[in-house]
């Protein structure tokens, strides 16, 4: 844990990279390192966060261009080795575009950019990303997105349900996501993508600490 | 080398809700247009590309459409190709 380092990936247009780094370093004392998207050397980081923002201006589709960054190409090996990858908001969009997670994220049903706190049910804690051990099955996290409506076909949805890959569901679906999905994991559980921003809920003074557990989980083996 | 002008059309799959299309449909009705049954918004991408013959160019365009221009989880694509 002493030298455990979380790589925070920076794309042109990322804007939550510093928030993630602040939350990890300042609130959890976990070392971070910024990784420019053109780097493909992941040898000195132990986990990776793909932060929120508007990589490449969301041109074509959210996450569609970022998918071709050298760092994302190198991510395949990293994920296969079992190391942990957390994609938040635009990071989640990049993970679906690049095929690390199934489905896609499309324009919110009401076309609004929604900036709000939402209540979320923890459905599965596959990979240990959420604390659903005892009484706390619901958390509150901020969302801030225009294209956060999770979409997948019915076969994929069945697979997500059957394999307990749905991590979080909105209590009051704000964006029209299929099955109220707010976050999913891969089958192994070492990759989590979610639209809500845990890094914005790591200190009581800014409205809550329900995001701490998820960020802290980055150091799990 | 032959040059081709390619027009790629990317559309949301019919099963995917298109809120931007719905909003535009609503504005179209406010404008006074009658009889609109459905309105959906897609993208058109124009590419000029060269290659050895149509088959080679089609292979390249297929790859581009499948991997980049469209996300086949939510979108379908088709294209037309004209030799210049």
UniProtKB/TrEMBL annotation, chain B:
Origin organism is: Prochlorococcus marinus str. MIT 9302
Q: Which family does the record assign?
A: Belongs to the PurS family.
Q: How does it assemble?
A: Part of the FGAM synthase complex composed of 1 PurL, 1 PurQ and 2 PurS subunits.
Is-annotated flag, keyword Cell membrane?
no
Top-level taxon? Bacteria
Pfam families according to UniProt: PurS (PF02700)
Per its record, how is this protein called by name? Phosphoribosylformylglycinamidine synthase subunit PurS
Protein's GO biological process? 'de novo' IMP biosynthetic process
Task: List the GO terms this entry assigns under cellular component, sorted alphabetically.
Answer: cytoplasm
Gene, per the UniProt record: purS
Keywords from the named record? ATP-binding, Cytoplasm, Ligase, Nucleotide-binding, Purine biosynthesis
């Amino acid at each position: 844990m002493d030298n455990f380092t979380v790589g925070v990936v920076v794309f042109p247009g990322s804007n939550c990279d510093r928030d993630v780094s602040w939350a990890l370093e300042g609130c959890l004392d976990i070392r971070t390192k910024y990784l420019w998207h053109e780097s493909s050397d992941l040898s000195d980081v132990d986990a990776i966060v793909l932060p929120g923002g508007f990589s490449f201006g969301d041109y074509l589709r959210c996450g569609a261009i970022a998918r071709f960054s050298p760092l994302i190409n190198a991510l395949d090996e990293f994920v296969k080795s079992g190391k942990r990858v957390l994609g938040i908001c635009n990071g989640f969009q990049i993970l679906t575009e690049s095929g690390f997670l199934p489905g896609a994220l499309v324009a919110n049903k009401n076309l609004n950019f929604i900036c709000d706190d939402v209540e979320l049910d923890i459905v599965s804690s596959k990979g240990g990303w959420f604390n659903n051990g005892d009484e706390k099955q619901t958390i509150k996290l901020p969302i801030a997105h225009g294209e956060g409506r999770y979409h997948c076909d019915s076969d994929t949805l069945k697979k997500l349900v059957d394999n307990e890959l749905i991590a979080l569901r909105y209590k009051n679906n704000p964006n029209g996501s299929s099955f109220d999905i707010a976050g999913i994991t891969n089958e192994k559980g070492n990759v989590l993508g979610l639209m809500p921003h845990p890094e914005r809920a790591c200190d009581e003074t800014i409205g809550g600490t329900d995001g701490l557990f998820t960020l802290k989980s980055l150091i799990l083996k | 080398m032959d040059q081709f002008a390619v027009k790629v059309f990317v559309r949301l799959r019919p099963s995917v809700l298109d809120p931007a299309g719905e909003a535009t449909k609503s504005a179209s009705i406010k404008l006074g247009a009658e009889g609109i049954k459905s309105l959906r918004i897609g993208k058109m991408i124009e590419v000029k590309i060269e290659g050895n013959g149509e088959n080679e160019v089609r292979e390249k365009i297929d790859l581009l459409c499948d991997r980049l221009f469209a996300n086949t989880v939510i979108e379908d694509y088709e294209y037309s190709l004209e030799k210049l």
